[in-house]
Amino acid sequence: MQWDIRREPRRWSNDEIRSRLKLTPEHFEVFDGEMLFTEEHRVNLLGVVLEQVGIDAALRLAPKELWREALDAYEREQRPFDK
Predict the structure, then answer these.
(1) Cα separation, 16 vs 52, whole angstroms
(2) SS3 of 77, please?
(3) To the nearest whole number, what is the mean pLDDT of the chain?
(4) Which residues are within 8 A (CB) of 23 and not within 5 positions of it... i.e. 6 or more apart?
(5) pTM for the complete prediction?
(6) CA 34 to chain centre
(7) What local confidence, expressed as pLDDT, does residue 37 receive?
(8) CA angle, corner 30, sides to 27 and 36, nearest 5?
(9) CB atoms within 10 A of CB 49
(10) Cα separations (Å) of 72 from 28, 34, 58, 67, 76?
(11) pLDDT by residue (tens digit) across 27-62?
(12) Which residues of 14-41 are buried (b: 16+ CB within 10 A; e: fewer)?
């Protein structure tokens, strides 16, 4: 899926609605402390929600130090090792 996540909420186009709704679960189930059955399903649901609420809303849910830590870790993983 090619996400179009922005800082602010956005509406889906008519072409996007059907493909996005296919990614949402019919029922929310929790098994052994995990919502939904697979990581892929959880990430797809997160993408759908982030498109609708914007990433700024997500930033308010956790302390900024955690976001910075996650971004630093992501950047380290993306860089090839120096030789």
Answers:
(1) 12
(2) helix
(3) 91
(4) 1, 44, 45, 47, 48
(5) 0.80
(6) 16
(7) 87
(8) 60
(9) 14
(10) 32, 26, 18, 9, 6
(11) 888 989 999 989 999 999 999 999 999 999 999 999
(12) eeeeeebeeeeeeeeeeeeeeebeeeeb
pLDDT at 83 (0 to 100): 44
- Contact between 24 and 73 under an 8 Å Cβ cutoff? The reply is no
Distance between CA 26 and CA 18 in Å, rounded? 14
Per-residue CA distances from 24 to 27, 30, 70 (Å): 9, 15, 26
- For residue 75 the two structure tokens come to 């950047």
Of residues 45 and 1, which shows the higher confidence score? 45
| pLDDT value at 9 more than 80 | yes
User: Which parts of 1-83 fold into alpha helices (H)?
Assistant: 14-21, 39-53, 55-59, 64-78
Q: Which amino acid, residue 62?
A: A
d(Cα 32, Cα 40) in Å, to the nearest integer?
17
